[in-house]
Amino acid sequence: MKKPSARTRALLGFGAAPLAILLAGGLVWQSSYAAFTSTTRSAGNSWSTGSVALTDDDRGVAAFSATNLVPGATGTKCIVVTSTASVPGEVRSYVANLTSSGATLGDRITFRLEAGTGGSFNDCTGFVPSGTAEAANPITTVAAARHDYATGGHAWPTAGVAAGESRTFRGTWTFDTTGLTQAQVDALQGSSLSADLVWEFRSN
Questions:
Q1: Strand pairing class (54-56; 128-129)
Q2: Which CATH class is domain 54-203?
Q3: What ranges do the domains of the chain cover?
Q4: CA 178 vs CA 110, 136, 161, 173, 188: distances in Å
Q5: What are residue 34's phi and psi, to 5 degrees?
Q6: Cys-Cys crosslink for 94: which of 42, 103, 111, 146, Cβ 3.0 to 4.6 Å?
Q7: From its phi and psi, is residue 164 left (phi > 0), alpha (psi between -120 and 50) or beta?
Q8: What is the pLDDT along the chain (204 residues), one digit of tens a residue?
Q9: Which residues lie closer than 8 Å to 15 by C-beta, 6 or more apart?
Q10: How far is C-alpha 158 from the geometric centre of its chain's CA atoms?
């Protein structure tokens, strides 16, 4: 049998080199998928917000609506505020939208708000105050001191009970003309005053 020439052997050797490289590359590619692997996951993660709701039992009626006042007149009403928030927070009370006409009646109507338990709207039977009772002050003074959530009073921490948690507030007003002359008292005739009592909830 005729032996291949030196040139043929060289060509065969050259042709075998790319094949060897391809085979080696194939082995590397196969080996990259030969390691052991394992994974774990926490599936179904989700996020949802809580809800807040604050109501009272006034049924859309103003707690105080007094007319034809004379010096020394007074009145007391209760209102139950209920939080049905699903998250904890704090409720505070303040006075908003204070307006008056004629003489400064707001300086002569004193007001005191107490927090406690028992009673219902327009009926303070069974009301039991909690904490130290505050002194009565002219409603203009109250409104100046407590006019928004940051300055609000009667802080009530709520736990976040969606089924509802309540607190009763008792408000007492008096038309106080102590220290006024008869002329000053007479100047208050025909005056009027209006204000909103606000309870605001903010979550922690």
A1: unpaired
A2: mainly beta
A3: 54-203
A4: 11, 14, 46, 14, 13
A5: -100, -5
A6: 146
A7: left
A8: 455 554 444 444 444 444 444 434 444 444 555 577 767 686 777 675 667 788 888 877 787 888 888 999 999 999 999 999 999 999 999 999 988 887 789 999 999 999 999 999 889 999 999 987 789 999 999 999 999 999 999 999 999 998 999 999 999 999 999 999 999 999 999 999 899 999 999 998
A9: none
A10: 10
Encoded amino acid at 192, one letter: S
* Residue whose structure tokens are 């005191």: 112
Phi/psi region, residue 181 (left: phi>0; alpha: psi -120 to 50; beta: rest), is beta
